[in-house]
Amino acid sequence: MATPFTPLTNTKHGEKYRPIKVSDIVGNEDAGYRLQVIARDRNMPNLILSGPSGTGKTTSILALAHELLGANYREAVLELNASDDRGIDVVRNKIKMFAQKKVTLPPGRHKVIILDEADRCTVSIETDDGNLLKFHTLSDHEILGRLMVVVEAEKVPYVPEGLEAIIFTADGDMRQALNNLQAIYSGFRFVNQENVFKVCNQPHPLHVKNMVKHVLEGKFDDACSGLKQLYDLGYSPTDIITTLF
Questions:
Q1: pTM as predicted
Q2: Per the database record, which ranges form the AAA+ ATPase domain (predicted)?
Q3: Residue 2 placed within a domain
Q4: Which residue positions in the chain have pLDDT lower than 70?
């Protein structure tokens, strides 16, 4: 029996398929180019990365830190995630202690502090437009490209419609796409539409499509019946409306 492949995401020290070079980041070419210039010039300014979840913000900064700091990059990077207390005590203690820690770095390089979900930070953060990098949701083609790398490397059995369903459920979020792929393979060992929508707990789009078709044909009772079927299956109104949208 095949064994599940190594976890792709949510591991403390990085993921199996997370890029370690800025040039390998999928999508958001403008932001990626800016980061490649920083890596080339070896001069990292304060930066704010803005954009939806799963579009490569943290991955990009970690890749940049890896290129700038070399072998000691883990010792020279401090990540504070959304669950951390972001008050003034953190700034005075965690960050100050990290800044004072002795780490051997290449000449002219500096430690990197990452404030993930910085909009929740209670400390004032200022930047100018020149230091703001905006990330956007990834295209279906970009997500498919990375999914193909993983399924081929891990020899994951799939049908094209299964990967299309993963892309649909991810909605431009690469992390979500990889998480879904792993969950489906771990649970069913085969990626097809049926298994995707079971794992992702979303109404099947074809069912919702039929509801819309009934409305367009004036068959409102049939449309309402289809809606009730989804509701009786346990899907929340938000799940149904999101898929309908």
A1: 0.70
A2: 43-157
A3: no
A4: 1-15, 82-91, 118-130
